[in-house]
Amino acid sequence: MAKIIRMSRIAGRVLAVLCLYIGLTLSARLVGAGGGGQSPLAMYGITAFTWLAVFAIGYLFAAVGIWIGSTWGTVVALGIAVCQIVLAMFDIAAIRLPNVDFVLALVVFVLAGALFVIVEIKPFSGVNE
Fold it and tell me: Rounded to whole angstroms, how far apart are CA atoms 123 and 27?
């Protein structure tokens, strides 16, 4: 059981750093980094710009929550990743994710889901060691 807890803490730190990275890259896009001098609002449109802002803030909050080991951090990361994946898959709100962002959202979804199952649901709580 101690090994599972230790591994879940390491996975939590990895997930927190990944969420921080995604949140910062989305924030950089929002302020126009890499846009070639074009306004990000004009480049993405109001709907996609709003969704990118929601994703950026959500990932940054999730990173803090996961880093401090709270329950809500994993739930926020899972929710933001699901929203991002669904919007990208069904082409809702004209959000065009680069392939790297889509893969990172899938990785966050898998890691956050596994971390939630291992830590929050505690399937091993009845096992005597």
Answer: 37
